[in-house]
TrEMBL record:
Its EC number is 4.1.1.48. It catalyses: 1-(2-carboxyphenylamino)-1-deoxy-D-ribulose 5-phosphate + H(+) = (1S,2R)-1-C-(indol-3-yl)glycerol 3-phosphate + CO2 + H2O. It holds the Pfam family IGPS. This is Indole-3-glycerol phosphate synthase. It comes from Fictibacillus terranigra. The keyword Amino-acid biosynthesis applies. The keyword Cell membrane does not apply. It comes from the Bacteria. Keywords: Amino-acid biosynthesis, Aromatic amino acid biosynthesis, Decarboxylase, Lyase, Tryptophan biosynthesis. The gene is trpC.
Amino acid sequence: MLQQILEQKKEEITKLETCYSLKRDRKKTSLYKAIRASEASPALIAEVKKASPSKGTIKEHYVPAEIAAEYEQGGAAAISVLTDQRFFQGHIADLVAVKQMVSLPVLRKDFIIDKIQVLESAHIGADAILLIAAAMTPQKLHELYRFAHEHDLECLVEVHSVEELQAVLNEFTPELIGINNRDLRTFKTDVNHTAAIASHIPEGILTVSESGIKDTEDLHFLRSHSIDAILVGETLMRASSPAEGIRMLYGS
């Protein structure tokens, strides 16, 4: 599935504009600082997500800006917006709408493999982007990481295994590392995956657990392993309301 998505991305990249007018005066909001400052433990990156390749449509009534506003009111530290159109039914317009609605940092979650996508992310107002280790070589990831920082974008570097983590750390030291609990071969999720990999992450790097976080038990487990933040989409999107989803997850 990942390979299929990446092939689609390569095709999309050829159609992107070659230049963007970047608004240098627009103030960026730091995802890193928002996680550090969060009163909730672990901090919540709440995801605006309509569908997924494995589950199909998750949310029928889908108004990204309204969902994000509820997330902010519910105590989220940051918002993640899925912008992939083909496989997740997202759009860059969703991120634009969310950024205009909330004061929180906004993470663009997509399959970013080229500098033109980084420029596009800065252009549409993202504060941070996701870079997936499984999608490229560590050298390429480092190149995009540096390029993103040159354009005032923070990066959440996502890994799926200890081997991927070590390959990244051998190349450079990211500020934020996300551990995806989803097995890319079976698409099954297990939060124990985070615990197994997190122990290999050096101190000083903020750790984010992603995917498959379903209830308070999962949250308590991740808290016991000193995880700094969780990225949650489907669980919140399936709740009766985004705010209620946050309350149920955090047991408040």
